[in-house]
Design a protein that fits this description.
Helix content is about 65%, strand content about 0%. It has about 280 residues and is mostly helical. The protein has a domain at about 180-275. The termini are far apart.
Length: about 280
């Protein structure tokens, strides 16, 4: 009895965490994939396919039950679960659309790729687009990554979503995104250009270190991205611009940025002079 009570208490705590966290917070898959079916059954809810589908799509059902129903459908592997979850993506409530996408993420069904791509380019909420990216990432095939890359083609795409797309492509070196990344080197967003240059350099596909030098010394980019640029220059050229013996985030700090950039420009000038 004691153990059963403790387990039930833990379940309730985990459930509270899910509802308290703001939408769009990215959790590890193991943290997000609570046993929604068990939670619903503890509440006396019928977890058959028909009941879960009806609850998810019924706007008069309470929000928590609808969200749990979406997660339970994703975890259930019911053959028709994808169709129901796809239908929920037109719901006017962002929380329901997000829960449906998380259910689709659990399914990891390649048939969902066209639908997820439509969300990435068509939904007007950046947080929803972020979940669509992770759902496509978890399907993990070339078609899914092509769909992720297509999100960069939208003229008015949210900048945080575009950055997420670049970082998702960066984390999949086996996927050939060279063409897309090279196009981003001329992007209007300096941070996007810098991140693309870092990724191409990591894959030995960057045509010239001039791009990284410019990113470090000329671009207006967040400090952590600047650190990444300088680190790539150091690794690819086996040199140091910030001094030895300390982590990058210590030695490449904001106070040292001007000094480090001066060393980069001096090194680059000497390197070019040696070629002549």
């Amino acid at each position: 009895m004691f153990i059963a009570g403790q387990l039930k208490a833990c379940t309730q705590v985990l459930l509270i965490i899910v509802w308290v966290l703001p939408f769009g917070v990215e959790l590890k898959a193991s943290e997000l994939r609570l046993d929604a079916k068990m939670i619903l059954e503890e509440r006396g809810f019928d977890t058959s396919f028909e009941s879960l589908s009806s609850a998810l799509l019924d706007v008069n059902t309470d929000l928590k039950t609808r969200q749990l129903s979406a997660l339970a459908l994703g975890q259930s592997k019911y053959p028709r679960a994808l169709d129901v979850l796809s239908s929920a993506l037109t719901d006017g409530d962002i929380e329901i659309r997000g829960a449906a996408l998380r259910g689709m993420r659990d399914l990891s069904d390649p048939r969902a790729i066209p639908t997820l791509r439509s969300v990435l380019v068509g939904d007007d909420n950046p947080a929803i687009k972020q979940v669509a990216i992770t759902a496509l990432r978890d399907i993990d095939n070339d078609e899914a990554y092509n769909a992720i890359g297509s999100g960069l083609q939208l003229a008015n795409q949210d900048e945080t979503v575009r950055i997420s797309i670049v970082e998702t492509l960066r984390a999949k070196p086996s996927f050939d995104s060279k063409r897309v990344l090279n196009e981003l080197l001329a992007d209007g967003n300096s941070e996007i250009r810098a991140r693309a240059a870092i990724t191409l350099s990591e894959r030995d596909q960057l045509s010239s270190d001039q791009i990284l030098v410019d990113a470090a010394t000329k671009y207006d980019i967040p400090h952590h991205v600047w650190v990444g640029v300088v680190s790539r220059l150091e690794k690819s050229n086996r040199t140091s611009f910030g001094g030895q013996g300390q982590s990058n985030y210590i030695r490449l700090n904001a106070e040292n940025k001007q000094r480090v950039n001066a060393r980069i420009l001096g090194w680059w000038s000497d390197k070019n002079a040696q070629k002549k």
